[in-house]
Every structure is written in C-alpha cells, then in structure tokens.
Amino acid sequence: MYIALYIIVGLVALVLLLALIAPKKYHVSRSIQIARPQSEVFTYLKSLKKMDDWSPWARRDPNMQKKFTGTDGEVGCVSYWNGNKEVGEGEQEITKIVPEERIESELRFLKPWASTSDCYLQIDKGSTEETSTVTWGFSGKNKFPMSIMAMFLSMDKMVGKDFEQGLSSLKTQLEN
C-alpha cells in the first residue's frame, strides 16, 4: 500500500517538476536571399492567396478546401483551409502590415489539435537594391501538458525544414 502511494506521489512530483522547467514558448524562423527588390517581394508576400504557390503545405494536399474572407493583402483577410491529415484544418488572419517590411498573422489550428501561433514574414533590403532578405517565422506558447512534450520534441526540427522548403520555393517563384 505504501509503495503504491510513494509511486503516485513520486509521479505527481515528477510531472510538477517537468511542468516548471519545460519551455513555455517556442520560436522558429528561417531566412533566404531573393534576387528581387524589397517592394516587389513585399507586394507578392502580403497576398494570402499567393501563399499557396510556395507553401509546402499546399503541396501536401492539392485538394485541400480553401476559403478567403476579407480583402486579400489587407489586415483582417482570413485564409481558411481544411485538408488531409498532414495539413489539418485551420485559418490564418493578417493582423498587422508594416508597408514594404513586415506582414504579421495569427495562425489558428483547429485540427489535428487546437492551438494558436503568431506568424510573420519580414522583408529586408539585401546587399543591393535589387535583392531582399525574407525571414519567415512563427512563435507561440506551450501550454501544459504540451510544454512537457516540448522538452522531447523540437518545434524547430518539426517545422524548420518546412520553412526552408517554402522559402526555397518562394525564391524560385520570384526569381523566374
């Protein structure tokens, strides 16, 4: 009887300790140089509809259902998607635009699990007037019990390769 009680108390203490030391936030970003002027890259990137041309997730389910509300490229525009198990269901809403520099969005994932993240595209001048640096990133909070899982699963490893693939596709799209 006492052994079972000690085991239960030990497990509870372990979970509490892990919850205390587990990462509470995550941030993933990747950057790429594109041989196009900053204004041209910005104009292209602020369109949620054009995101399907370079997004790695659009390629994983070419039959995904898409719906847009609001004016594309403006604050308040929402892109809704419902796809296969790889892409899930969710929506992206443009929340802030800094002309020629940055587009911020809120990602609301509905399936396979509910979560919310902040996403951004930062466009900076490159080494010349004819080049740009694009940084694609997202961040969010790890809520319990996901925070404990984050100790063993790297969000950077899970999403970083997708960002690299998407940015490479974006580069190809804009430079050709």
UniProtKB/TrEMBL annotation:
Record key words, sorted: Membrane, Transmembrane, Transmembrane helix
Residue stretches spanning the membrane: 6-23
Domain of life according to the entry: Bacteria
The UniProt record lists the keyword Membrane: yes
Protein name listed in UniProt: Polyketide cyclase
Organism of provenance: Euzebyella marina
